[in-house]
Amino acid sequence: MLAASTHTTAPDRSLRTSLPALVALSLASCLAVTSEMLPVGLLPAIGDAFAVGEATTGLLVTVFAGMVAVFSVPLTIATRRLPRRPLILATVVGYLVSNTVIAVAPTFAVVAAGRVVGGLAHALFFSVCIGYVPRVVDRAQVGRGLAIVSVGATAGFVLGVPLSTTLGSALGWRNAFGVLAVVSVAVLVLIVRVLAPVPGSSAGGVAETRGAKRDLGVVVSSNMVTFVGHYTLYTYISVVLLTAGAAESMLGPLLLVCGLCGLVGLACAGRTIDRYPRPTILTVLGLLVAAMLAVGVALPWLVATVIAVSLWNGVFGAVPSIYQSAAVRAMPDAPDLAGAWINATANVGIALGALIGGFALGSSSGRASLAWVGAVVAAAGLGIAVVGKRAFPK
Q1: What's the pLDDT tens digit per position in 221-236?
Q2: In whole angstroms, what is the distance from residue 153 CA to residue 211 CA?
Q3: CA 169 vs CA 42, 162, 164, 174, 207: distances in Å
Q4: Which residue has better confidence, 171 or 363?
Q5: Which residues form the Major facilitator superfamily (MFS) profile domain (predicted)?
Q6: Cis? peptide before 300, omega within 30° of 0
Q7: 158 and 259 Cβ atoms separated by less than 8 Å
Q8: Which CATH number fits domain 208-387: 3.30.565.10, 3.40.50.720, 1.20.1250.20, 1.10.8.60?
């Protein structure tokens, strides 16, 4: 009888039981992406408010991405032993402070300071968020769990940024950031209510899995190269659509359609990423390269270009979650560190892609060269995944 009374049952780590926490993290991811990308649609208004030029205002985007690229890994290493829930709360508080400071900023320098705070929060948020999922979900369902969390990030691109940008245009850019500050408070309350407390990582956990660092290096290398290829073209997607004959008034609806296609692609990959990880990854990356090539072929015909762009964005919707799950699988003893490297290399890829795309855009080869160059670089990311059989196992 004594043995029976002291028996403990293992915690339920099923996807269904963990769903409220995953949804909370998904909403927090939507807030994070919206906070990161909102200035893109409001740069002219912010510049006019403080009488600064477009190039200077554009630094608000650059400084945010730079903070993420530089500090993701160091901050994750420094905090890896801390409990996860307070750390996630701290990052959301960072978004709250960042958006509040920007909303009431008296000078452009204060706006930039607010972006620095947001960049630091962003550098840590996705690392901790990615690392939280395998702590509450069975290993066999981690890919689906990460896909659920990724829905929020995709929704941030699809709905959060366009809606908040529209709000900023209608009511003023300060009010747009003010609304995000209020949303931050709501997300904080939700996280407190539904997120289970989990411990941090133990010391020396990375060394427990043989070859983990090498496998993670392969995954994040493929991740960075693929992001470079994608953003070589995606950074200038509006230019591509306008070149194909789309009216400026069509850009918003077309980009919304592209984002919705991304959600569909994410949902499709989420169904197979745990059972068939390697075939899923290779199929997604292969289709990504093919769809980017199709964009180059479709130009300058509008209907064909819209179809190709929609397919390309639909396929890419699955890319972040497949790399996240591959990184966690490669380094299961330190999922936060794996997430940090994914976060950092993705942001490096975004910056390099925009730079390479700018050079391609200025070449004499025309707008289609964006698709050709982007597809070639993305094909290199696919090649790394093909060769890295251990990092991308069956």
Answers
A1: 999 999 999 988 887 8
A2: 30
A3: 8, 10, 9, 10, 51
A4: 171
A5: 21-394
A6: yes
A7: yes
A8: 1.20.1250.20
Tell which wins on pLDDT, 364 or 239.
239
Q: Do domains 18-194 and 208-387 have the same CATH topology?
A: yes
Q: What is residue 236's DSSP assignment?
A: T
- Could you say which DSSP state residue 201 is in? P
Q: What is the CATH number of domain 18-194?
A: 1.20.1250.20
The reported pLDDT for the residue numbered 6 is: 44
Rounded to whole angstroms, what are the CA distances from 10 to 2, 13, 14, 196, 202? 19, 9, 11, 15, 20
Higher pLDDT, 59 or 294: 294
User: How would residue 202 be classed by pLDDT, with cut points 50, 70 and 90?
Assistant: low
Identity (one letter) of the amino acid at 360? A
Amino acid at site 274: D
Can you tell me which residue has the tokens 């994070």?
A: 32
Residue 342 near residue 332 (C-beta atoms within 8 A): no
pLDDT digits (tens, 9 = 90+) for 276-322: 889 999 999 999 999 999 999 998 899 999 999 999 999 998 898 89
Torsion, Cα of 265, 268, 274, 278 (10° steps): -60
In angstroms, the CA 43 to CA 54 distance is 7
| Cβ atoms of 318 and 284 closer than 8 Å | yes
pLDDT given at position 8: 46
DSSP H helices, the chain, are: 2-5, 15-50, 54-57, 59-79, 84-104, 108-136, 142-155, 161-171, 173-194, 212-234, 237-243, 248-270, 277-298, 302-316, 319-330, 335-361, 368-387
Q: What is the pLDDT of residue 271?
A: 83
Q: Is the pLDDT of residue 105 over 60?
A: yes
Q: What is the DSSP secondary structure assignment for residue 159, as one 8-state letter? A: I
Kindly list the domain boundaries of the chain, sorted by start residue: 18-194, 208-387
Q: CB under 8 Å to 360, separation ≥6 — which residues?
A: 232, 369, 370, 373
What pTM does this model have?
Answer: 0.79
135 φ/ψ sector (left φ>0, alpha ψ -120 to 50, else beta): alpha
CA dist 305 and 303 (Å) reads 5
Can you read off the two tokens belonging to residue 182? 């209020």
275: helix, strand or coil: coil
